[in-house]
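Task: complex structure prediction.
Instruction: return structure tokens for all chains below.
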Amino acid sequence: MSRSDNDITRYDPAMKGSSRAHDDVDWLSPLEEPFQVIGLAWFTEERQYRRLPVVLDKKLEEAVGDSANHLSGAQIRFRTDSASLSIRVRLKGKADMVYMPATGQCGVDCYIGDVDRMWYMATTKYDWMQSEYESVLYQNRPSSMETVTLYLPLFQGIDELWIGVDQGASLSAPPPFASNQKILLYGTSITQGGYASRPAMAYPNILSRSMPLEIINLSFAGSGRAAPEAAQLISTISCPACLILDYEADGDPEEFQITLPEFITVYRTAHPVTPILVVSRLRYSLETHDPAWIREREEQAAFQHKLVRRLREEGDRHIFFFDGSILLGSVDYDECTVDGKHPTDLGFQRMAEGLLGTIRTIVW
Amino acid sequence: MSRSDNDITRYDPAMKGSSRAHDDVDWLSPLEEPFQVIGLAWFTEERQYRRLPVVLDKKLEEAVGDSANHLSGAQIRFRTDSASLSIRVRLKGKADMVYMPATGQCGVDCYIGDVDRMWYMATTKYDWMQSEYESVLYQNRPSSMETVTLYLPLFQGIDELWIGVDQGASLSAPPPFASNQKILLYGTSITQGGYASRPAMAYPNILSRSMPLEIINLSFAGSGRAAPEAAQLISTISCPACLILDYEADGDPEEFQITLPEFITVYRTAHPVTPILVVSRLRYSLETHDPAWIREREEQAAFQHKLVRRLREEGDRHIFFFDGSILLGSVDYDECTVDGKHPTDLGFQRMAEGLLGTIRTIVW
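Output:
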């Protein structure tokens, strides 16, 4: 079926999937000033849209693969008075996920306002059969200087990205954060944002709208295996505000019980007093039908809790445990995912609300 | 890019998009006993997966088009002790929406349990490049008789649907509802379920898990224009518990102010005391940037409120007004959609929670 045969868009033009900027737009690269690209720990050195260094340890390269190019957590920030804003993107691949719309996997989200209150503006609309798109995020906005934040694709890489503003529009650097400290997350497909409807709804990105700090999301779908090489690499990121370890959901339970203490040991060698928050996994809806899932979750949570308690007793007062099984609520937790495991926007909102207080407490 | 090149599924097998039933499965048609198909007002007479009669008034046919085949609100109910459950579907078209995953547009959701507590079990996984799929919803369930509810695709029609159970499994009719009265909704793309991540998360379908009544969703994306022919047709549905009119979001504001009183008049002629709930539209996130959206929303809500008040003063004690602008909350209502207008699962959950008390009050 060709795109033009789409019955829904024939009846509802608002549901169409593309829009084009008008001609008198300046196309600018966020690689240049005054744009600020955050959420990519090696961006300042390498100027690459990538979550890990370009050259990786071989073992790590195999584990994370292309996921290092996926831009979960990356943001572009700037101030402008442009009445319109457009975006042009060349993706590394096409939308290809059954549980996640193209907007969440490959789209860009736009918010207006500073970190005390960022307002949702728009998500890119595009023909998701293509790997390149151009989309108008807004137009006819009253001409006052505002901070714009763009959230980049959660499960896709980009080769090129251009930002279109009206000719003659003013541009300046965004306001600074509260400090140059960064919140670091290490996790799995869930923490990477599977399956949010749009990039800004991955839970670390929701948190970013309540925390005036840079958040760096080092979560790799299916590859949150916590090799010592990963812990070593994350240890090289300067000025950590905290490290959140939320990778129980992937991989083998026995392997997890080996990698978690190893990961903490490696990280502690480099950062003796940085707060570490160990988050156990969500309740899967499957556990209502198969008690084996409950047992595994409870055992793994107990293991993590005990490990953190032991480390605290041994003198590490900067490590904490969070029981992730409470995050989706106790009444209708089974409604929060699209496959029994990966949260929807509903699940991610609950995760962010549930974690916010704890993260503020250990970071501030 | 071929499906096998999908990098995400290479690294995370749990994110793969297909599964096949084993061989010793009986494939049964829900068109036969003991299956119950609900949510399709003309199903009993016509045995068609369709939300409107096969033959339509010409004006209505043009307005609703293929949307009448989309199965938003349709459910298949039965009881079984089968340890596994599979489904095989031939869709009328492929997944083709940028803001909505294939699961929400074309998938099937499975819940286990009776209306006092239905537990989410699974959503069909399939290769969304295809228009036919077979998917295992569960297997290895302990063999007790349970009520199964399947929610059908929100924005797609089906030509064929087969349910696969283990050979020798018992099947029986589902428990009856509290009465044979039906909750009727007339609405737009939002009420049809754009853009839920899976069928059961459209707000009328969420409500169905808290209300032991059949719900019939007559919402047609882009076509909620409320022609008198539509009102006439809906009047022919017997045993209405209430009629919810939630179609302000589509169409022209001036047209709406003509069609709404006409629709009510037509419906009242046939159903003088059936509760009617008029729901004004959600807050769009656009209104934070353009006050014209606020004015229009407030004017339309005032119109609806005034109309309902006048009708009540004239003696109709069975018509009510609900201010839909409160449904997404006052703090972060802008976070609840994927395009500023159509709710995600987060928005739909808030809509269902916000409306439940009122609907119970006017129906019970």
